[in-house]
Specification:
This protein is mainly beta. The chain has strands spanning 3-7, 10-13, 18-25, 34-39, 45-51, 55-57, 65-70, 75-80, 89-97, 107-110, 114-119.
């Protein structure tokens, strides 16, 4: 069973940056595609990024966010730059999609989330 723990969220002003981390344990981290999703209040989960050897991003974060992973540390990162209030959400990391890596429902393992708030 894989456990995922996110950290790094917080309050930041528009235009600022944050780096989120997702630490994994209990599984073969390097074998799993890993994704980031976010959920704003009252909205559905939104695909942010996935790293599976390649990197793919949601349209709303392309050019501003960068996903990376350190398999030796079993940790995935999300560097977020040029943040704006629309990026305010709870950010979740997820592992091991059984189907589409863009679909939140296809991921087997989830962290508890970390909150990012961007003030204008």
């Amino acid at each position: 069973q894989v456990q995922l723990v996110e950290s790094g969220g917080g309050l930041v002003q528009a235009g600022g940056s944050l780096r989120l981390s997702c630490a994994a344990s209990g599984g073969s981290f390097r074998d799993y595609p890993m994704g980031w999703f976010r959920q704003a209040p009252g909205k559905e989960y939104e695909f942010v990024a996935v790293i599976n050897g390649n990197k793919y991003y949601g349209d709303s974060v392309k050019g501003r966010f960068t996903v990376s992973r350190d398999d030796d540390k079993a940790t995935m990162y999300l560097q977020m730059n040029s943040l704006n209030p629309d990026d305010t959400a709870v950010y979740y990391c997820a592992a091991d999609p059984e189907g589409s890596w863009k679909s939140a429902g296809d991921y087997r393992y989830w962290g508890q989330g970390t909150t990012v708030t961007v003030s204008s």
